[in-house]
Every structure is written in structure tokens, then in C-alpha cells.
Amino acid sequence: MQNLEDVIERCGSLAPEHIPAFIQANLCRPFASLLTLSDHLFGKVDSIGSNEFEASFDREFAVGPGGIHGLIANMAPVYRVIAMIRGTTAPAAAVNRVHSDMVSLTYGLLRCVEHLRFKHNRSQWDPTGGYREFAIIREKRDDKPLFSGPGNVPEIGRKYKIILK
Predict the structure, then answer these.
(1) What is the pLDDT at residue 21?
(2) DSSP assignment, residue 16?
(3) Closest to 120 measured CA to CA, from 139, 144, 140
(4) Is residue 132 helix, strand or coil?
(5) Taking a C-beta distance cutoff of 8 angstroms, is the pair 4, 27 a contact?
């Protein structure tokens, strides 16, 4: 999915009255399944659901490009555009509806990310470049402290040359 601001710029200028429908069609509807998952998770992001729900969650909630990345990359631009078109020729009801839908998607995304974090160890979803590796080491050594004393260099310090003072 392309950045919403880039699409609007390439298409020329969209009239304010067309922007709410554009956002609905290109962001709210494509990510509507997130709301179904989120509704199920309301109040229980930190528990495992039924086998059917968890299979659906794993199938429908993808992190990164091709997944929720398209939503995340466009959230801030959409909120800015919504603020800019208030009070213009855009129908107030359409602007309020798209704003409400974006707020629902925002909270839905939060619930799904929280559930993902609960469901899977950090070593499976943290970005590479130290974070994931640290989580893997931490997971393996869960019963032992990483830092055992001032003279000892912990495993993570040896691997990444962390300077300990």
C-alpha cells in the first residue's frame, strides 16, 4: 500500500468533499477485518482465545509490509488530512464518520498488537539488529540474571560490545 499523501499528490488535488470517501475506500475498508479481531479481544488482549479465533488472528493479523504496515504508514497523514478538511466543502457527517472509523482502527490496532505481544515471545516479533537477539538470549536465560557482577561481562555484552560502567 502506498502512502496516502503520495497518492493524493499524484492524483492531483482531491476536492475536500471527496477525501472522506477516498479514505474509507483505501484505508478503512481494507483494514475492516482488524475491527472484527479487535472486538473479540476487547478486555482480554492478555489471554489466549479459542483455537478458531487464534487461527483467524494468525491468518489475518500480519506485521510489516503487506500487513498492518499499510495502515500504520498512513495513520498520521489521514489524521492530518481530516483536520485540514474540517470546515471546508467536505460534508461534516462524512468527515466525522471517517474520523470515528480511524479512531476505531487505531484502538483495534492497539488491541491486536498487545495480543500479539502477549501471545508470542519477543524473540519472534522484535526487529532484528540487537533487539530480537537480546530477546532470544533473555528467553534462554530467563532463570538467570544477565548481569552477574561488576567484573563479569554478560553474554549480550560480549556479542554486541556493550560497554558496562
Answers:
(1) 94
(2) G
(3) 139
(4) helix
(5) yes
pLDDT for position 1? 47
Cα R_g (the chain), whole angstroms: 21
For residue 24, what pLDDT is reported?
Answer: 94
Residue type, 20: P
**Entry field: residues in the chain:** 165
The percent helix, strand, coil of the chain (3-state, each to 5) is 65, 0, 35
69: left (phi over 0), alpha (psi -120 to 50) or beta: alpha
Task: Kindly state the cell numbers that stand for 22.
Answer: 477516498
pTM comes to 0.69
What are the DSSP calls for 48-65, one per residue? Answer: ---HHHHHHHHHH---ST
User: Which residues in the chain land under pLDDT 50?
Assistant: 1, 146, 148-149, 153-165
